[in-house]
Task: structure prediction
Amino acid sequence: MSITKVLGMAAMGVVAAAAGGVGAADETAITIYSSAQPGAIPPELYRPIPGAGTPNAMAVPGYAMVRHERMVPIKAGRSTLRFADVAGLIDPTTVTFTSLTDPATRVLEQNFQFDLVSNEKLLLKFIDKPITVERALGNQVTTLSGTLLSSFDGLVLRGNDGSIHSLREYSSLRFPELPGGLITRPTLEWQVASPMGGDQRTRVTYQTGGLTWWADYNLIFNEGKDANSGLLDLSAWVSIINQSGTTYPDSKLKLIAGDVHRAEPPAPQMVGRVMAMASKAMEDEAGFEQKEFFEFHLYTLGRRTTLPNNSTKQIELFDQAKQIPARKTLVYYGLTQNYGWGSPMTDRELSLPMNKKVDVYLEFKNDKAVGLGVPLPAGRIRVSQLDGADGSLEFIGEDRIDHTPKDEKVRIKLGSAFDVVGERRSVDFTVDTKARWMEEEIEVKLRNHKSAPVDVIVKENLYRWSNWKILTKTHEFQKEDARTMHFTVRVPKDGETVVRYRVRYNW
Result:
């Protein structure tokens, strides 16, 4: 009540002046926030799978701010106002109500009614009340009327003559009326006080769960002039899941990209600053327009769209970018993970597992010069390559990217190379614990079975201790951090390249 009063008082100066120009048509606007890990939502959460049961809307990791504007009749003085077609997963603590016609109209009390009608609830409501049961016996349908005594493990009825009937199978039930307390749609019910009454244009905003979105990127890779280069065509789509319990017809749609913090449990939100932004009419084919919004990015769809309940919708995020220069990067990391011990590791045999696979990445820059230079929301990115033999696109890998600003590099892991393998081993180790030093010589072999030379990045973790110095090396290296360096080497076709270095640790 206090939030509504504050919004009403704050809006008196600006909304009342504009109320006369507001059209009478109902209007819905929705801003969707996502906390979903791109590509991490299994299909059973957002589309029905035979035998998998009902999708779990509560597990959809996202939420939305919804704004409804409607003309409603309000009586002068105190009256009851019902507002239907709200989301079934609404957070009632976030609801705000404002009359754009008369800002002095305010809500005194609010109830959220969500006891929706169902067979089970109807039966419970009609215990000790009369119902009629229809049963199919052969080709005929018989009816039995009586008082419902129980609906557990079948039906138990007391007939009009006092006889008791236990029914496990029946074709349909007839109830004389819809009992009080059951409704067909989630409904907000308010006790409203209005000085003037009459038809008023109202704005209702609230937060609801059961909605989320993420970006889906599709890349087509074409090989370049050598084994480590290529060109990309990139298209981007927005995937939206709506399991909030209602449909949003012909709505203004906005998406927020960024890591928006929420307190748990959520507190009431002053949502007018997000939802009350002015928008202009655009042509039906208008796509998303993005802009900076606080420390996030706001994507506004330039046309209206409908988000049906229990649906997944895809909308193009931006026009396809073509011929993006890309770099195919091969990375060999002989250890299976990064190691960093809390003390010097002086044992010669640490039993560290060796990796033989060489990972494959695609890299490109999110640069305006190549047709991009736009903020890329976090999403799942799939890569295909054209098979020249029959002109078909073949899937070659996928990855997930985080929110990526313009002018930053995008790196996509596609898998492991088939024809390039690596081998890493320690060939010499010396330690003097009294003098507090040790030396180790590492050998890395890379074998290339392709018909063209390749460049490979050899990543090395100086895992024994953080104070180290390279004494000898066969190739130049770059230091990445206190315990990581890498060599960039070329491996000839059907050939082998050996990288050796000797490192000294002191402590």
